[in-house]
Amino acid sequence: MLAFKAYSDPIYLDYQASTPVDPKVLEKMLSYFDKEYGNPHSTTHVYGIRARQAIEKARDEIATVINADAKEIIFTSGATEANNIAILGACRALKKQGKSEVISVSTEHKSVLEPIRALEEEGFKVILLPVHKDGLIDLSLLEKTLSSKTALVSIMAANNEIGVLQPIKEIANLAHKSGALFHTDAAQAFGKIPLDVKDIDIDLLSISGHKIYGPKGVGALFIKKNLHILPISYGGDQEKGLRPGTLPTPLCVGLGVASQLSQAELVSESKRILALRNKFLKLLEESHIDVIINGHLEQRLPGNLNLSFKGIDSKSLLSNLKGIAVSIGSACSCSSGEFSHVIRAIDPSDASNPAILRLSIGRFTTEEEIEKVAKEIIMSIGRLKEKPNERIY
Ligand SMILES: *Cc1c(COP(=O)(O)O)cnc(C)c1O
User: Fold this and answer.
1) Cross-strand partners of 105
2) Considering the entire predicted model, what is its pTM?
3) Which atom in ligand 1 lies closest to the alpha carbon of residue 82?
4) Edge-to-edge strand ranges of the sheet holding 101-105
5) C-alpha 283 chain-centroid distance
């Protein structure tokens, strides 16, 4: 158990929104705040040189997880920035070669959808593919949609709300056959499922530190060797001029250690987390409550569950679940109170706005917690079925 978890805090099942920094990661970061504080871009003294060495080690640690070369990795402030650099940078570069279309999917994260929207204003034709009811895209539809004008296909490896894993190897293959580049937002997939950029043949891949037990405010973008993209911000030649600004040494170090740790634990952790999810599902099933599992159950991240409860209001449900920290939809759309665009996309004809719960199980989740959470959800649903508008506070 983590030492800083207060006794009365709710049980944390929101690992897809963010993860705690693993104590092993934190420990390796600390000296880069106060002892090794040199500017990693200073080459005239040991303070700078040692910081630089730590960053290059981290770059290498990230690269090996996806079978890339360290030279193909640039640090960013997170997956949002990595997605912006990849999408805007690649499409603007290809525009000069007469490419004018971008293809993505309606269930993408906003940090992909919004830069793509911005490209529409720059004259690009944007095509957002729909998904099947299981959350997966239709490969034959993608094939038909691709043309010689397609600059980029951007499709996430694992969905942040429903956890489904898109067939990225097949997608990359189709994109390349028609001369387009392939970018994948792997913020949820990196370190959770095996990813090999050479085998899959990925051109651009985004990752985030705080989804893999690393710090917030750091991420990385893989850019395939010899691929030229344009910068979206200016002010220095750091990170090949694509991400100007002084690198945050402690955060980069943390991302490197977190990447290595995820890789080392990937197989055993997936197995343990999947067993917890199955346990939870078994408890739900035995309770006979009315629940729909959103998204393909097998083609899915082990730690994700996304549930719909018909006839129940999301806010009422959440206010009943005081002992559990989960989200309705994604962390990003929770605050705006909008109904999830992902759940809407998997069933556009359903206008009933059911209560949605996204449960994400992680490294520090215990079996006892899963039992408590299942019990609390089952009891709350039972209570709300009797009195749909009841709120506890
Ligand atoms: C969390 C997340 C992001 C954003 O990552 P940040 O590092 O917080 O910018 C982007 N895409 C997906 C799929 C995510 O889950």
Assistant:
1) 129
2) 0.94
3) 9
4) 73-76, 219-223, 204-208, 181-185, 150-154, 101-105, 125-129
5) 28
